[in-house]
Amino acid sequence: MAQHNAREVICVFGQSGSGKTRWLQRFVKSQTRAIIIEGDFPDETDQFAGIRFDDYWEFHDYMKANYAGLFRARYSPRPEEFELMCTWAKEAGACALIIDEADRFIRQGDIDPVFSELVFRGRHFGDGAGVSLVLAVSDPMKLPIDVRRLATRMIIFNNTEPVDVKWLAEMFARDREWSERVPLLQPGTFIEWRKAEGCAEKTLAQVSA
């Protein structure tokens, strides 16, 4: 089995045009074992690196043949297929489940049981390497609090919504002043928060694929 980095829960926030998608594209390229759940937008079919599938059963057959090796598989599931995608991440273990437009599938009070298991027990799958979760949405409040509070890393692009900025200030705790920078961030610039490490301002040029 290919080497997999330590389990992470990464939340990526950013308004349209801020750089969120470009960060996600670079992260996807850095992964050798990844399942990418894409937004269902006709003009975004070539947005991420990897093999794109237009039919779930084609995706299923590919994962069945490759889940123990290297894979970077992309699919935009129907709501009823989301659980199946999460089940494949659990089965593969030692991989990243990357969900763009995550609020299409994950809402407060309506979390799929298999996804919930990946959130709370994902570190146990894959011989201890764990299943990393990378969830991208436009703003923090679109993700359930149970997901946000388990984040090991947050990638925060420009956001001017007062409720979101207030929550970020509480999240940053001793570094609350960082939240004041969020509405001022220019496209391609973001704040990276890491658990137990705090915040740093970075640019997309510093993100390696």
Summary of the model, kept short:
With 209 residues, the protein is of the alpha/beta class. 27% of the residues lie in helices and 22% in strands. The protein is built from six helices and nine strands.
How would you describe the overall organization of this protein?
Helix content is 27%, strand content 22%. It contains six helices and nine strands; from the N terminus they run E-H-E-E-H-E-H-E-H-E-H-E-H-E-E. The two termini are 21 Å apart. The mean pLDDT is 89. The protein has a nine-stranded mixed beta sheet, with helices on both faces. The chain has one domain: Rossmann fold, CATH 3.40.50. A hairpin with a 3-residue loop joins strand 8 and strand 9. It is of the alpha/beta class and 209 residues long. The longest helix has 11 residues.
Structural key phrases:
globular, 22% strand, 6 helices, 209 residues, alpha/beta
CATH H-level superfamily:
P-loop containing nucleotide triphosphate hydrolases
Number of DSSP strand runs: 9
- Largest beta-sheet details: 9 strands, mixed
Could you state the order of secondary-structure elements as H and E?
Answer: EHEEHEHEHEHEHEE
CATH class membership = Alpha Beta
The span between the termini is: 21 Å
Class per helix and strand makeup: alpha/beta
Mean pLDDT: 89
- What is the count of structural domains? 1
**Rg value:** 16 Å
Gross geometry: globular
Low-confidence stretches: none
CATH topology: Rossmann fold
Beta-strand content bin: 15-25%
CATH architecture: 3-Layer(aba) Sandwich
Number of helices, counting only DSSP H or I runs of 4 residues or more: 6
